[in-house]
Design a protein that fits this description.
about 55% helix, 4 helices, elongated
């Protein structure tokens, strides 16, 4: 999100950064909570997009290829971290079955 301001570029590259950046930040912050840890998988397509975006969008060469390098390494790190993930250690909720009793499976004790 900050790259256009730091490196001073605009156009399609800046719009891409302003759209993809908040998606990455919001999903990463939400995935820190164990109950929605699976949201980390949003980082995989976002990271892969960051890898190929400089090719398709054509980031400007300001100060060499630094914006391209930042995007490629950032996207690679994001994709790897999305694949690694983390265990929750607890089980949360019960889905719709916790809200709608007729969806619950009966255990032997209940029969």
């Amino acid at each position: 999100m900050a790259s256009p301001g730091v490196f001073g570029y605009g156009g399609a590259a800046a719009i891409n950064d302003h759209v993809v950046g908040p998606i990455i930040v919001a999903s990463s912050l939400a995935a820190a909570w164990p109950a929605v840890r699976s949201l980390r998988r949003v980082g995989l397509p976002a990271g892969l997009w960051m890898l190929v975006a400089p090719i398709f969008i054509g980031y400007p060469s300001i100060g060499g290829d630094l914006p391209d390098v930042v995007h490629v390494f950032g996207g690679l790190a994001l994709a790897i971290l999305a694949l690694l993930g983390g265990a929750t250690g607890e089980r949360f909720g019960g889905g719709w079955a916790s809200v709608l009793p007729f969806l619950r499976r009966q255990t032997r004790d209940e029969l």
